[in-house]
């Protein structure tokens, strides 16, 4: 598969706005590990290899364990996620799959039990932002670099 276009070159003003939004999300009160788990889960749902490749090392650097990354697609069945992470992941899935979930009250209640009003807004902005990035990367077929594996 090859990329469709360089959207940074095609619309630098639009992409500057996206980059500014991304930088703003890093200054919110949501912790880096939760922010990165959300980005990974949303990117898994959206099938965005570019963002998964980008955010896996960032998640590890933020302190997310490899075990959590390994079981992230099955987070509901895994005991390694705490209540805040579960609430964030449930809300991420609900908003990413909005056409089928309609943001259920149960997921919102879990969110409200784990996060205050400001944090719920901030988490929703982070989810919205990674969904937007996924749409750019998947829609325009952004290609992530291929890691070179050392041969023995």
From TrEMBL:
Transmembrane segments: none annotated. Residues 12-93 form the Carboxymuconolactone decarboxylase-like domain. Signal peptide: none annotated. InterPro entries: AhpD-like, AhpD_core, CMD-like. One of its GO terms (molecular function) is peroxiredoxin activity. Keywords: Oxidoreductase, Peroxidase. Pfam families: CMD. This is Alkylhydroperoxidase AhpD family core domain-containing protein.
